[in-house]
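Data card: per-record layout.
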Amino acid sequence: MMDSELPPGSCNSTGHLSTIGYHTLPGRMHHSASTPAGVDCAGGGSRTPPATPKKGGKMLAVRVQMLDDSISMFQIQSKALGRVLFDQVCRQLHLLEADYFGLEYQDANGTKYWLDVEKPMCRQLGLSMLEPTLRFCVKFYTPDPARLEEEFTRYLFCLQVKRDLAHGCIQCNENTAALMASYIVQAECGDFVPEDYPDHTYLSGYKFFPGQDSESERRIMENHKKHIGQSPAEADLNLLETARRCELYGVKMHPAKDHEGVPLNLAVAHMGIVVFQNFTKINTFSWAKIRKISFKRKKFLIKLHPEGYVSCSLDEYNNVKKIFIYLFKVTPTASCIITLCNKH
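The structure for this 344-residue chain is written out next.
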């Protein structure tokens, strides 16, 4: 992560803009608050909160990677529910709007899972019991970031959007990507100053999105010039407002196959369940049209209301109801989709 004393244009060890707190750069506009409470400022270090009192049973040391890429260590009983760990993370962050977030991990094969807060840690499939590492991240993307009550929650959403943009998870054109990157620069560095930034090379050390080159950096710089006067909080909100209009905003793909064996991706979004072929949307099951969702092992079923179901008879309903079946590689993926749907 970027040290607060690095000069403008310097980069951290990962090549990303600093994502830890709202730091101050000499002579630059900065956030009125320093690093948000509960976020570790030790570059690349770890933070270990007081251990949970031992009441018997094996203790488990868990590593949690925060959205700023810092690592925090937690000690919990291996038989404790996942909620115990999640609550400890939220307490460390002083996070109030915790329902938007979750803890994600992956097994040796790269399959990703959400930590089930209602199951014991030792019974979570794919979770290694030897100092496992989980990632704290946004689980439910709000369609209207302006309605988030806490500024700190918006800050965490911004960190997630920065990560999604850098990893190519947000589908948008080059102009939109450059615009989002310019809001990141405005929030981090403040107003554009020609004497300090004579050309686009002050951006060269940062990775904003895949395929970034000198031309896209010039585009970012031109956008940065237009943001003079925006506070970091305003720039953050503009970043979120721009991101939410993008294709695949908040979409996390789950590989599956249809009943004919065709490879697809399923995602749970605020509007419903979305089906993709590669990254092309081919179907959307809105929540209003879904009658029931269920799973049996690796099989995931979506039952839809028939058109005009409000006025049809029971016999008519049974004749025209629609059922869509998808197969996942592993059972927990189907279970995870069900959990996400129920949250929505």
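Known properties of this structure: The radius of gyration is 22 Å. Residues 1-45, 308-320 have pLDDT under 50 and may be disordered.

See the next section for split statistics.
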